Amino acid sequence: MKKGIIFIVIIIIIGIIAFVPGVKDFLKNQFFPIATIENAVHINEEDYDVDLKGINAPSTNLKNFKNKAVFLNFWGTWCPPCRKEWPSIQKLYDTRKDNVDFVLIAMNDKEEDVRKFLKENNYTVPVYIAQSPISEKILPKVFPTTFLLDKTGRILIKEDATKDWDSETVHQFIDNIIK
């Protein structure tokens, strides 16, 4: 009797995985994250075209970072979670600035507030303020939002929350994308 029930439950689970839309892809992405990378969204030429006013770096355009690995972060001095993750971003920058380009874009902020925040905390990560519209593909819905882009413009990581960016996992991920 018990074996029959177990058999029926297993058949039902297999049926759900095989025939319910989305379940198979969800499980594949959970257990085989490389599939997520292969299906990653790409940033195209138009998405990169954002004029950036440098706060502690020369002004530039995001398209100058095309064909490079990029740590792209949207944040604000007014955002407590953004401020919380800054120390780990600074540590990651200090150790990885030769391997990855860092572009932190202050959103909904006054230039003087950004300058004051950077100076008070001795932060040296390059910070910009966007001077032209940002593509919907990368425009954040929440703050902080961070993207790790590979050299082809694939979004490999999109984090919509505070994260410890100086973790061993992040360092290993960067090692893998810069090879």
Please specify the SSE layout and strand pairing.
Blueprint: H1 2-19, H2 23-31, H3 33-38, H4 45-48, E1 51-54, E2 60-61, E3 70-75, H5 80-96, E4 101-106, H6 111-121, E5 127-130, E6 145-149, E7 155-159, H7 168-177
Domain Thioredoxin: 26-179
GO biological process, one term: cytochrome complex assembly
Keywords: Cytochrome c-type biogenesis, Membrane, Redox-active center, Transmembrane, Transmembrane helix
What can you tell me about this protein's structure?
With 179 residues, the chain is an alpha/beta fold. 42% of the residues lie in helices and 18% in strands. It is built from seven helices and seven strands, in the order H-H-H-H-E-E-E-H-E-H-E-E-E-H. The protein has a seven-stranded mixed sheet, with helices on one face.
> Biggest sheet, open or closed, and with what strands and sense?
7 strands, mixed
Radius of gyration: 20 Å
The tally of beta strands, per DSSP, is 7
Strand content: 15-25%
SSE pattern: HHHHEEEHEHEEEH
Spans of 5+ residues with little confidence (pLDDT < 50)?
Answer: 32-38
Overall outline: elongated
- What's the overall average pLDDT, rounded? 88
Helix content: 40-55%
Which strand order does the major sheet show? Answer: 2-1-5-4-3-6-7
Distance between the termini: 56 Å
**What structural category characterises the helix and strand content?**
alpha/beta
Q: Helical segment tally?
A: 7
Organism: Chryseobacterium nakagawai
Domain Thioredoxin: 26-179
Keywords: Cytochrome c-type biogenesis, Membrane, Redox-active center, Transmembrane, Transmembrane helix
Protein name: TlpA family protein disulfide reductase
